[in-house]
Design goal:
This protein has 6 helices and 8 strands. The chain is an alpha+beta fold.
Length: about 260
């Protein structure tokens, strides 16, 4: 038996589907789902954002799904555009960085955890920028698990510790996409962070989102949008592209800022 999260599903022939599955032990797998496009097929549940348990046949070429059981379906995230955009962005990020048919330790568990957090937002809506913040933090976690971690501890050039001097508002660090974060305003750098923005970014490696004592999310939507852009530029440089859904997620963040 094989367990994994369906990341994408495309037509294959007249009635079949081509399923891309994220698994813990085998990374990304592309599987044929016979009859998966027939509404009454027992395999029709092989759709994106479904957590599945599969019985797969074949050892060479494109393997085929014989049976499946839905462990959990996250299609309810479509009830809120920002949650769906976040989920799609995480799926795209996995498609870009997870190796094919090789172990991907921790990635599936992390994505399932993030989808669970997004489900909680659908059931009990919080501030509108919450999904945006989850998307940024989850991307930071997934990049680290995939071997593309943002280097947040030291200046990429001097090696000095990146200790943001809170209160010194003229202090800056620069994103140099090919290197990391560099202390100072580097000419031509696409993004500059002030001390509070850097401090917020560094806190994203923790398991939970940064919150104030009253439980409110730290950082206004504009800052979360800047951090999303920073992650996007890192993906452009190190993965060759950023998830297209980052644009949709940024649009929901802009809406949050206007509300």
């Amino acid at each position: 038996m094989l367990e994994g999260l369906a990341l994408s599903s495309k037509p294959l022939g007249e009635h079949d589907r081509l399923l891309t599955l994220l698994s813990e032990s085998q990374g990304l797998l592309r599987l044929a789902v016979p009859g998966g496009r027939r509404p009454k097929s027992s395999l029709a549940a092989a759709v994106p954002l479904a957590h599945l348990q599969l019985q797969v046949g074949g050892r060479r070429g494109l393997r085929r799904v014989r049976q499946l059981r839905v462990l959990r379906n996250y299609s309810g995230l479509a009830q809120q555009l920002e949650c769906l955009a976040c989920a799609q962005a995480l799926a795209e990020l996995c498609l870009a960085m997870v190796p094919g048919e090789a172990p991907a330790p921790g990635v599936l568990a992390n994505v399932l955890m993030q989808l669970g957090r997004l489900e909680s937002l659908v059931r009990e809506p919080a501030c509108q920028s919450e999904a945006l913040a989850i998307g940024v933090q989850a991307s930071v976690h997934l990049l680290a698990l995939g071997g593309y971690a943002l280097p947040l501890a030291r200046c990429a050039r001097s090696g000095e510790p990146l200790h943001p001097p809170i209160g010194q508002w003229d202090w800056r660090c620069s994103l140099v996409s090919s290197e990391g974060l560099v202390i100072g305003a580097v000419p031509g750098a696409p993004l500059l962070l002030n001390p509070s923005e850097l401090a917020l970014l560094q806190r994203l490696v923790r398991p939970v989102l940064p919150r104030r004592h009253d439980g409110e999310l730290m950082g206004p939507p504009a800052v979360w949008l800047r951090l999303l852009e920073l992650v996007g530029r890192w993906c452009d440089e190190h993965l060759g592209r950023r998830p297209r859904s980052f644009r949709l997620l940024a649009g929901t963040g802009t809406g949050a800022g206007a509300s």
